[in-house]
Amino acid sequence: xxxxxxxxxxxxxxxKGLAAVVERYSAYVIKIARTKLGGLCTNEDIEELVSDVFxxxxxxxxxxxxxxxxPRGCLAIIAERRxxxxxxxxxxxxxxxxxxxxxxxxxxxxxTDDHSRLTEALKRLGEPDTSIFIRKYFLxxxxxxxxxELHMKPNTVDKRISRGLVRLRKILEEEM
Amino acid sequence: xxxxxKELACILTEDDAAEFENTFADFETGACVTxxxxxxxxxxxx
Lengths: 176, 46
Hints:
The complex is a heterodimer of chains A (176) and B (46).
Chain A: H1 3-12, H2 14-37, H3 43-64, H4 71-92, H5 99-103, H6 112-125, H7 129-138, H8 143-149, H9 154-175
Helix pairs in contact in A: 1-2, 2-3, 2-4, 3-4, 6-7, 6-9, 8-9
Chain B: H1 2-9, H2 21-27, H3 35-45
């Protein structure tokens, strides 16, 4: 079922639509959760988080009448936030995670203007760099996995990240 | 570099997710789930 049809179903028969969204995107959301949380959580924790992501998607959809441009993107955003929340909870409970593992995931408070500035700057990097940056820094994917899925060599990915960071800084400075 | 990582971790909102639709679509490649797992998720959501 295509996204447009999914959204129409969600608007007309919300529960049936939600079931269709789970069927269509559960593998995708699990992949995001495993990428971010692999080694930190059990499979049961990940399944629970994934359920919570779909419930969050449903609640968000109910609020906006399911006027959602990209269900896949929306699920990725909610999954990312839930992963950060879970890592934060694990850290507060004092479970064993190294500081290095955690520090990379914890967001600082970013002013709203900076969100759109960085989003625009990322888009200006162009493909495949935009995708590499989103995969590496937003979705938390390892360089080796990015390389495999984008059919590149790992050192090519690293070089693009290194050069991309310089370009990103330049783009952001130009806009200031 | 760490700041970029932190900023990106909270940069996107539901509304601008569509700007990176292609990346999210590509990321879906290779995603897999067992029927049992999917069923458990479904029954806890519905």
